[in-house]
Design brief:
The complex is a heterodimer of chains A (479) and B (519). By secondary structure, chain A is mainly α. Chain A contains 18 helices and two strands. In chain A, helix 2 runs antiparallel to helix 3 and helix 11 packs parallel to helix 15. Classes of the chains: A mainly alpha (479), B mainly alpha (519).
Chain lengths: 479, 519
């Protein structure tokens, strides 16, 4: 009897293959290169990211699926891969490409591995594979969070992130196990059966799944780790964490809840509604009290997770497309603002307290304007992409009948205006007794700042292109 | 030209910013000069609108309508009628005046100041010309940022408190308006199956009362905060007093008018039944504003906050006129918006001029100024009288029309409003007497220098306008008459449709857009 080997279309996982190859290459080359030559490693990494992005392009509208849906090439997967790659590219750019002591190859290799995990997470309809991706992503991140070995805060950050993360993956895995116990499958497409709703095991499983993913996207009340971890981790990694893993968590959340469990929404919608409100409100209110800018942005990232949770509640095609739109825009805004923090903190000086920003806009107008654009965009004021994204989210909520959620959302962004614009006030309207001196901003950091600013203003004024793309992200396989 | 003129007027200041950017900050006069030329050019282009405006039609003119964000039905849709025409002229005129008036008052960070002014101008014009709700909202919000910088960077000692208060108050209203805009968008889709943000399409919607009620109040809150209608006025004295002179002029002259303009452009035609049911509430709040604002003005020790509170009172008149709902009162209301921009703008300029000399604005520090600065005193007198509404000045025409119209609809309101005119005379003349008459009690005032040529050049056009509108308002009223009539006809048409279909419907006709033959 001839054994038929199922034909596998490797195009679907080509981006992942490329990233894996480059991650291994960077790591393996590292010991063989002299310190001088090691400078090539970051360049190798971003080239890898671009090649992976190139291999994403033919997947658009292909709607491929291999291994029984364990790896998907649908539009949702492609656009999420793209978001992760943009985040990774910017992270590599803001990671001191030309500073006197280049970071080791393992740093870039770990970033690439983490990206690989995200890409796996965002493109599978199988819970086990999603879990696999999540672990690959997280373990690399635990190491990266503690990358400043000599810094106690960085150690604390890594330790906390690891313990909390391990704890949350425990929840996730337990949830998957319970769901498997009820349904006999880990495939999302087999979850849609209202008969399961009477099973307490299934409901418990769903709850645990939500807890696990809630940890990753930093939803309240699973957000406790965020401020400490964000504060302690090296700033480029904080930027990376705010953009990538959050998007990956939402990729999984959207797939599991909207696509897998969409028809069962009455069971979980109230819980997510409450989570969204709590996350927005707590994040914004706590951000007001922060004096450390990284902590402030950590709470702001919690608040933004809340806004994106609105899209999960709103659901439907607008829900998915507004989430995709906002996640990309958010990556630009948040990485941009962390890039400014890095520019201030180069050469060992930290300058992370709010008073350190006094007079920054007067002394370094360009840097001040960059930061002002990011802050205005984060607070959702036109003509920035942040406004368009929020507009899209709130219209998704109104369209699907969650007017109350939209109103709570806009009131929350009013609160956020206060603490974002306070940064602008500090930068432009206060004088510093001894202003921070910035010796030199590396060219890669400058490129990242320009790219994010142009992206934010460009998408704020001409968002049509991205709207069209994110609308098509609702074309996905399965069901 | 007809199609692009509004784009040119709106975005010319942004082009000016691009010219300003490369100029070195060691050459402030070049920066000032460039900004002035740009703002004067913008004003000249806006005059083109005035001279080519067709006053025989209530249609929207100089319309441009091209798709912008097609996937959401958002278009770059601009056009003006007789209501917005003068507000645009006022904006371009006052911006040029303000840039000239800041020549010596702003000596630090000149470039940033001019960039903020020009950006603000684009935002303000955009608000008045946008006929797409999304586009309108973008301008409405974007304009906050330059104003935020103007108050926060070049303002007085409590500027940071004032600027935060201003932004947070305004944002509170406008964010709820955003939700209302989105809700209106989906309501329109549920009736017609079409997604659009076009205001003229939205006008066709006849909504059931319940929906009108909520949407009206969401819009009205945003506009009432901007006007500011009592009790939402508390941001105004802080912002006006702390802002630099140019900022106060723009705030009082133009920004407040965005609120009243919003009531007329959005609230009335979109939600006519809710608008009518809100007449008692808003009229009473406007009356409280008129009287309360005047009383508080009377008690001020600082000239600038006196002028600031007088704005609350004057804008109360405008609101009363807009909610009397007849042609006289509404025309009076629109004219009074312009008048207030001219008179109060000029008062802030005058206060700024004397502040530059003495660095105090307290009434008690002055006395007998008329002896040392006779020209200044004469200008101040004319403007103060126009602010009071003396016959022969612009204020009289506006207030007369408003009170006349209000009298037709509600005698009690008209009588109460008339008392506001008397109160205005009291606070203005009393302040004038204490500052300008009597002996020069304070030796610091003895060596005050009278106005220089630049300052006269700023004030003369304003004084000309005061008398022109006061003695011969016809060119102004005739341009807006047809538009106001069209508005009322349209509201009547919607009212009939509402009576036939109280559960909501879509009417077939909206405003027309004037067509131009290709030359």
């Amino acid at each position: 009897m001839p054994i038929t080997i199922p034909s596998i279309d490797f195009r679907v996982i080509m981006p992942e293959i490329v990233i894996t190859l480059f991650a291994c290459l960077v790591m393996l080359l590292e010991p063989f290169l002299s310190n001088q030559r090691k400078r090539i490693l970051p360049h190798l990494s971003w080239v890898g990211v671009l090649i992976a992005a190139y291999f994403c392009l033919p997947l658009w509208n292909s709607n491929l699926s291999v291994w029984n849906g364990q790896a998907l090439g649908d539009n949702l997967a492609v656009i999420f891969k793209f978001i992760f790659l943009v985040g990774t590219l910017l992270t590599i750019l803001i990671s001191h490409l030309k500073s006197s002591q280049p970071l080791g190859g393992e740093y870039y290799s770990l970033i690439l591995f983490s990206t690989l995990g995200m890409m796996i997470m965002g493109s599978s309809s199988d819970l086990i594979v999603i879990f696999l991706g999540l672990e690959v992503m997280s373990i690399a991140l635990y190491v990266l969070a503690g990358f400043n070995r000599t810094d106690l805060k960085s150690n604390e950050s890594a330790m906390k992130y690891f313990l909390m993360g391990a704890f949350s993956t425990g929840f996730l895995l337990y949830g998957i196990a319970l769901i498997y116990g009820t349904t006999g499958s880990t495939n999302l497409n087999s979850l849609v059966n209202s008969a399961y709703l009477t099973e307490p095991l299934f409901i418990t499983g769903l709850g645990l799944l939500l807890v696990g993913l809630g940890f990753k996207v930093a939803a309240v009340p699973f957000h406790m780790w965020v401020p400490d971890v964000y504060e302690g981790a090296p700033t480029p990694i904080t930027a990376f964490m705010a953009a990538g893993p959050k998007a990956a968590g939402f990729a999984a959340l959207l797939r599991v809840f909207l696509i897998g469990l969409g028809p069962l929404s009455p069971t979980w919608i109230t819980i997510l509604w409450i989570l969204a409100v709590l996350t927005m409100t707590l994040g914004n209110v706590f951000a007001i009290a922060q004096m450390n800018i990284k902590r402030m942005l950590a709470y702001s990232s919690i608040a933004h997770a809340g806004y994106i949770l609105i899209t999960v509640v709103a659901g439907g095609d607008v829900g998915v497309s507004s989430a995709v739109f906002y996640l990309l825009v958010y990556s630009l805004m948040t990485i941009g603002s962390f890039a400014v923090i890095i520019a201030l903190g180069e050469k060992g000086e930290k300058n992370e307290e709010l008073p350190d920003y006094r007079g920054l806009g007067l002394k370094y107008p360009l840097l001040g304007v960059f930061m002002a654009v990011f802050m205005v965009s984060l607070s959702g004021i036109p003509p920035t992409a942040g406004f368009v994204g929020k507009f899209y989210i709130f219209s998704a909520a109104v369209k699907n009948g969650y007017l109350g959620l939209a109103i709570i959302g806009v009131l929350n962004s009013l609160v956020s205006v206060y603490y974002y614009l306070r940064i602008v006030v500090i930068m432009f309207m206060q004088e510093a007794p001894s202003p921070v001196i910035i010796r030199q901003v590396s060219w890669s950091l400058q490129i990242a700042l320009w790219l994010t600013t142009i992206g934010i203003l460009g998408l704020g004024i001409f968002p049509d292109f991205l709207f069209e793309i994110s609308k098509q992200s609702f074309i996905f396989s399965g069901r | 030209m007809e199609q692009w003129i509004l784009t040119i007027v709106t975005f010319l200041p942004v082009v000016g910013i691009l010219l300003l950017l490369p100029i070195s900050k060691t050459n402030p006069n070049l920066i000032r000069g460039t900004a002035l030329i740009i703002s004067v050019l913008t004003f000249l282009f806006s005059l083109y609108l005035y001279f080519n405006f067709d006053s025989n039609t209530g249609d929207f003119q100089f319309v441009i309508n091209i798709p912008w964000i097609q996937s959401l039905g958002i278009s770059y849709f601009m056009g003006i009628d007789g209501i917005s025409l003068f507000l645009i002229l006022l904006t371009t005129f006052l911006t040029a005046v303000c840039i000239l008036s800041s020549w010596t008052a702003i000596t630090e960070k000149v470039k940033g100041f001019m960039i903020s002014m020009l950006l603000l101008e684009t935002g303000m014009i955009g608000v008045f010309v946008a006929l797409d709700l999304f586009l309108f909202y973008v301008f409405w919000e974007a304009m906050l940022i330059p104003m935020y910088f103007l108050i926060g960077m070049w303002g007085g000692p409590r500027r940071i408190y004032a600027t935060f208060k201003f932004v947070l108050f305004t944002m509170f209203g406008s964010l709820l308006m955003l939700v209302a805009i989105i809700a209106l968008y989906f309501l329109y889709h549920s009736y017609t199956g079409v997604y659009t943000f076009s205001l003229l399409e939205m006008y066709k919607l006849v909504l059931p009362y319940g929906a009108q009620f909520w949407l009206f109040y969401a819009f009205a809150l945003a506009f009432a905060i901007k006007v500011p209608l009592f009790p939402f006025h508390t941001w105004l004295p802080d912002a006006h007093v702390e802002a630099p002179t140019a900022g106060s002029v723009i705030l009082a002259g133009v920004l407040l008018k965005m609120g009243t303009y919003g009531f007329l452009r959005f609230c009335l035609p979109l939600f006519p039944e809710a608008y009518q049911s809100a007449i008692p509430l808003i009229s009473i709040l406007a009356l409280i504003g008129i009287i309360y604002g005047a009383m508080v003005s009377m008690m001020q020790k600082d000239v600038k906050s006196l002028v600031a509170y007088s704005s609350v009172s004057h804008l109360g008149f405008v609101m009363l006129g807009l909610f009397a709902l007849n042609v006289e009162a509404v025309e009076g209301g629109i004219l009074q918006m312009i008048n207030h921009g001219i008179s109060t703008g000029a008062l802030f300029l005058l206060v700024g001029m004397i502040y530059e000399r003495r660095h105090t604005r307290l009434i008690d520090d002055y006395g007998g100024v008329a002896k040392v600065m006779p020209i200044f005193a004469a200008f101040f007198m004319i403007i103060a009288l126009s602010s009071i509404g003396l016959p022969g000045t612009n204020g009289f025409v506006g207030e007369f029309l408003i009170i006349l119209g209000t009298f037709k609809s509600n005698i009690v309101y008209a009588v109460l409003a008339a008392s506001g005119v008397i109160l205005a005379a009291i606070y203005m003349l009393w302040m004038y007497q204490r500052v300008f008459f009597g002996k020069v009690s304070n030796p610091a005032n003895e060596k005050l220098i009278d106005l220089n040529l630049r300052e006269k050049l700023i004030l003369v056009p304003l004084v000309i306008l005061v008398f022109w509108i006061g003695l011969y308002p016809k060119p102004y009223l005739s341009k807006m008459e047809k538009s106001v009539e069209t508005l009322f006809e349209f509201v009547d048409k919607k009212g009939q449709a509402y009576e036939n279909f109280p559960e909501g419907t879509v009417i077939s006709e909206s405003y027309n857009v004037k067509q131009y033959s290709l030359k």
